[in-house]
Amino acid sequence: EVGEWVMAIGNPFGLPGGGNSVTVGVVSFKGRDLPLGVRGTSVEMIQTDAAINPGNSGGPLLNTRGQVIGINTLIITDGGARQSAGVGFSVPINVAKQLLPQLREKGKVVRGWLGVNIQGLNEELARTYGLKETKGAVISEVTPASPADKAGLKPEDVIVAADGRAIQDNGDLSRYIASQAPGKAVKLDVLRNGQQKAFTLSLGTFPEEATEEGSAAARKGRLGMTLRDLTPALAERLELPRGAKGAVVWEVEAGEPAEEAGLQRGDLIVSVNGVAVSGVEEFEKAVEAARSDGAARLRVQSSNGFRIAVLRFQK
Question: Please, is 274 exposed, middle or buried when counting C-beta atoms within 10 Å of its C-beta (0-12, 13-18, 19+)?
Answer without folding.
Answer: exposed
